[in-house]
Amino acid sequence: MKAPNSTPALLAALSLAALLLFVADLAFGSVRIPLAGVFDALAGRQSDPAWSSIVLVFRLPKALTALAAGASLAVSGLILQSVFRNPLAGPDSLGIGAGASVGVALVVLAAGSAAGSAFLSGLGLAGYALLSIAASAGAFLVLLVILLFARRVESGVTLLIVGILVGYLAGSLVSLLVYFGSPQKVQVYLGWTYGSFSSVTARQLPVLYAAAALGIALTARDAKALNALLLGERFAESLGVRVKGARTRALLAAALLAGAATAFCGPIAFLGIAAPQAARRAFRSSDHAVLIPGAALLGSIFALAADIASQAPGKGAVLPVNPLLALIGAPIILSLFLRGSREEGGAK
Asked: Using CA atoms, how far apart are residues 41 and 59, in angstroms rounded to an integer?
């Protein structure tokens, strides 16, 4: 599984695209800031105090969050697609997003007093810390269930079905909690479900980046095992890969990456499916030594592009990120079905 010679150039091009989108995300918004003003703010030169405040306090943490969350979800999806050998597997296949949603829903509904609801709807530092802890706890509980089955189930397809069922159960619990919640509390919860990169503060960023770095490092460590799992579990065992151990480590890394991104940003759809598939097509390789950085860069690019597009209305209006990511991810997923149909037709 050797990477093509064009791989370094493509990685460099994607890195440059991510950098340009990162700078654009700092410049665009309800207040348009010229690039010179952005660079002055980043360099500590206060050509305009208002611009510096907007860039450093609001837009820089948001852009950094999009970078980390996009990369985390993309690599998480890459892991799941490789372990389950299913191009439509994504972070939600493990039920991580649904588990995080249960945690957040429980916190919102537990705020029984008006003061508690106001505390959560204010979304201050303590409010988001509480939501993050609740989302991480819900995702971790789902992870424990999946890992329990992973020790007893040999088939990756069966484990994928288990993950989908656990996700459905968690989603049903969320629906019941929302049904019995007050309109004010439901509104707070729905605001989180739309997904946003703007809720993470500069003080929270180190936690998000630490989780992303650890998850990607664990994935890179098992790149060869993931390559072998693509060819089947029996083939991987014939190469000396301990399938259960490698699969458990891969699922743990996927859960860590997706759980951290979901806790801080809310459920972000399609990135975990679309970015890994885009990486496979762009690099035309199944080598995870190539796909891991490629998927991470494409995930960051998709997230930054969606964040920039969310600012399009201007005048303080911001579109939700998830519908914009659906516009990116849905065509990629549909193309998978079309390509599969053409391949089946050609085989006949």
From this structure: 11
Q: Within a 13 Å sphere around the CA of 159, how many CA atoms are in the beta-carbon half?
A: 27
**Average pLDDT of the residues in 133-152:** 76
Map out the domains of the chain with their CATH numbers. 7-347 (1.10.3470.10)
Q: Where are the alpha helices (DSSP H) in the chain?
A: 7-27, 35-43, 49-53, 60-84, 96-110, 114-122, 125-150, 156-179, 183-193, 205-221, 223-230, 233-238, 243-265, 271-283, 288-310, 321-347
Give the model confidence (pLDDT) of 88-121 as tens digits. Answer: 788 877 777 788 888 878 877 765 444 344 434 4
Q: Which pLDDT does position 1 carry in this prediction? A: 47
Q: Exposure of 179 by Cβ count < 10 A (0-12 exposed, 13-18 middle, 19+ buried)?
A: exposed
